[in-house]
Amino acid sequence: MAQGVWTIAEQRDGEFRKITFEVVSEGRRLADALGVELTAIVLGAGMKDKAAVLAQYGADRVIVADDPRLETYTTDAYTSVLSQILSAAEQGVVLMGASVQGKDLAGRLSARLEAGMAQDCTAFSIEDGEFVAVRPIYAGKAYVKLGFPAGGFRIATARPNVMSIAELDAGRSCEVVDAEFKLDDAELKTRVVEVLADESGKIDLTEADKIVSGGRGMKGPENYAILEELAALIGAAVGASRSAVDAGWRPHADQVGQTGKVVSPNLYIACGISGAIQHLAGMGTSKYIVAINKDPDAPIFQRADYGVVADLFDVVPALTEEVKKIL
Questions:
Q1: Cα separation of 16 and 26, whole Å?
Q2: How far is it, in rounded angstroms, from Cα 323 to Cα 327?
Q3: 39, 60 Cβ separation under 8 angstroms
Q4: Which in 95, 121, 181, 206 has the greatest CB count within 10 A?
Q5: Summary count for the chain: helices (H), strands (E)
Q6: pLDDT at res. 41
Q7: Is the CB of residue 10 less than 8 Å from the CB of residue 97?
Q8: DSSP H or E stretch at residue 129
Q9: Per-residue pLDDT, 187
Q10: Any idea which of 187-191, 284-288, 303-307 has the lowest mean pLDDT?
Q11: Rounded CA gap, 64 and 48, in Å?
C-alpha cells in the first residue's frame, strides 16, 4: 500500500470537533505502521491559521480548502472538493469520524472514488501490510474484521470516543498548503439557507465523556430532573432510550440507540433502562456501564460493569448527595 494515510478534519463554526483529533491521532499510528505520510485535509472558510494545530496531533502535512461555500457542510460541495484532492493520490487510507456528517460524506465519497468503505469502526490495524477495519454487526452482537481490495482508496469512519487522542506535541509543526480545486456552482444541488443552533449549552451526546440516561422506568418527563441534577454535577450529558423518546418525554436528539445516536463515553449510567438490543447497540462500547433497575433480570445487567438492583428514585438522589460531598 502506498500514497499514505489521509484524515478528513471536521469543523463546526470554525472550530475543530473532538473527533478530528481522534482520527488524526489514529491516522498517525497507522501511518507509522505503514511507513507512510499522514495528511490531514481541512475544508472550511478562514481555517488556514487554525489548521496548523493538527501537526501537534501527528499530521505530516495539512491541506486546506478555503472557500466561503465550504464554511458549512453540504454533501455536494465537500464531495467535489475532496474527490479532486484525493484523486491526485490514486490510493491510500482515508479516515473520518462516524458523525452524522462523516457517515454522509463517506458514503458519497466512496461512490465518487469507487472505493471500499467501512462505517462506524471501533478499531483499525495493519495486517501483512494491509489496512483492516473492525466494526460491529447484528446490532452489536458480533464484530467483523474487514479487508479491502488491492489498489485504490480504503475509506473508513471511526466511532467517536473510541480512538484515543495522542498526547499533544506543542513543538511539532508541519507544512500547511492550499488545496487546488474547482467548485462549480452549477454542480451544487444544495445550499445552507439557515442554521438553527442549539443554544441550550448541553453537551453533545456523541462527544460526551459521561452520560446519564433514562428509560421507561423514569415514569414521566418531569422525573428527568433528578438525572439533570446528577449530570450537571459530574459534567455529563443526559440521554434517553427510544421508549422514553417515543413517549414524548425527551427530544429525539437525546435518543441513544440503533435508531438514535451511537455513543462511546467513558461512563454510561443507565437508569430505568431494560437494555433492549437496539439500545445496547448504541452504547455497548462505553468503557464503564452502570445500570440501575428494579428488575434483576433486565438485559442491561448482562452488559453492565456495575449493577444496582433497586428503585432508581432511591438510588439516583442518594448518589447525587454523595457526589456533592466530594465536590
A1: 16
A2: 6
A3: yes
A4: 95
A5: 9, 17
A6: 98
A7: yes
A8: none
A9: 83
A10: 187-191
A11: 6
Q: With CA atoms as reference, report the closest residue to 112 among 159, 67, 76, 150.
A: 76
Mean pLDDT along residues 28-48: 95
CB 82 within 8 A of CB 41: yes
Torsion, CA 54, CA 91, CA 150, CA 120, rounded to 10: 40
Eight-state DSSP code of residue 214? E
DSSP code of residue 272: S
Q: Is residue 116 helix, strand or coil?
A: strand
Map residue 1 onto helix, strand or coil: coil
Give tens-digit pLDDT for 152-168.
999 999 999 899 999 98
Domains and CATH numbers, the chain: 4-187 (3.40.50.620), 205-326 (3.40.50.1220)
* Residues pairing with 182 in the sheet: none
Q: Which residues pair with 116 in a beta bridge?
A: 154
pLDDT single digits (tens) 219-267:
999 999 999 999 999 999 999 999 999 999 999 999 999 889 999 999 9
pTM as predicted: 0.86
**pLDDT value of position 2:** 54
